[in-house]
Amino acid sequence: MSIVIPRELRPADGRFGSGPSKVRPEQLDLLRDLGTDVLGTSHRQEPVRALVREVRSSLHDFLGAPEDYEIVLGNGGSTLFWDVATFSLIRERSVHGVCGEFSSKFAAAVAAAPFLAEPVVTRSVPGEVDPLSAVPGADTYAYAQNETSTGAMQPVRRVTGADAGALMLVDATSGAGGLPVDLREADVYYFAPQKSFASDGGLWLAAMSPAALERTATISSSDRWIPPSLNLQTAVDNSRLDQTYNTPAVATLALMVSQLRWLQAGGGLDFAVARSAESSRRLYDWVEHTSYASAFVADPAARSRVVATVDFDDAIDAALLARTLRENGVVDTEPYRALKRNQLRIGMYPSVDPDDVSALTACIEYVVQRIA
């Protein structure tokens, strides 16, 4: 027999996905306004280029980027950017911090590249984050600010003792816009827009330092063969013209512009970080006071503010719990498939109202009482 959660317990908006994430209804207003004037028109012309320009300018301000950093964007998501970085940013040897499924994929892409040395890989137990150590001769360091698959986070910092000129590449796909960052600690802070920026996939964006831009230009002009679509210099050149190499997803740009306007109006990155922090505080407080649930990430300092992973006792079927929530309009709480744990994964990006997180916990309690 199906379980019906009383409407007064349910969140006002039941979307808790870790990506794609909740798109605020107000964002659709800009899509309607653009209508036939921009959607379906040439990305080489001013209307679409104006969207790209606003994304680049607003994002630069929102992230508090140093003046000489550039916002670069290109077609494809973060998965494609790993290939871009493999071809266009690593000179010879890289060091990778792996703490989950997504950070492992970048390391694997580099390991398969025949023109690069074998990468040095530091592997953490899922749910934990071990900081990288300097490796003599390494010219690139790569790690994730927030591992989407496990809900573990770490601060953005340069690796102490790294060789002069070594680049710091930070995968910020689920961290950007919801976690604090000092971009001076990174050379390439890259992400896709379907998390905190509440947009669709299909694009990657990166805040790049002068050192990263110089490395890109040097490798691009070398004898290394790089497919044009994976040549980061191509993306840099097109971004400076407020366009992309190939046709971008214009609706994705519009949704991101709307989200950036909302975040900036609320108070910028501080506002966004505080909103996610409040949601995570409510969720983890509930976990701490619940006998049948526990935080998958044991170290409180490493518990993500934007993606929470909650384990449940064996007496509770978390898969059944997630299905029941979905039947009641509370969706995308399923765990990351590769972890194979009896848990829920809950996205708490800035678009999510903290009150809805509190309502979610009430819904979980209601269902658990009936399935335990």
Explain how this protein is built.
The protein is an alpha/beta fold and 372 residues long. The chain folds into two domains: 113 residues, Aspartate Aminotransferase, domain 1; 240 residues, Type I PLP-dependent aspartate aminotransferase-like (Major domain) (Aspartate Aminotransferase, domain 2, 3-Layer(aba) Sandwich), CATH 3.40.640.10. 37% of the residues lie in helices and 14% in strands. The protein is built from ten helices and twelve strands. The strands form three sheets. A seven-stranded mixed beta sheet has the order 1-9-8-7-4-2-3, with helices on both faces. It has a three-stranded antiparallel beta sheet with strand order 10-11-12. The protein has a two-stranded antiparallel ribbon with strand order 5-6. Strand 2, helix 4 and strand 3 form a beta-alpha-beta unit. Helix 1 crosses helix 7 and helix 7 crosses helix 8. The chain starts with 26 loop residues before the first helix and ends with a helix. The model has no long low-confidence stretch (mean pLDDT 96). This is Phosphoserine aminotransferase. It comes from Allobranchiibius huperziae. InterPro entries: Aminotrans_V_dom, Pser_aminoTfrase, Pser_aminoTfrase_mycobac, PyrdxlP-dep_Trfase, PyrdxlP-dep_Trfase_major, PyrdxlP-dep_Trfase_small.
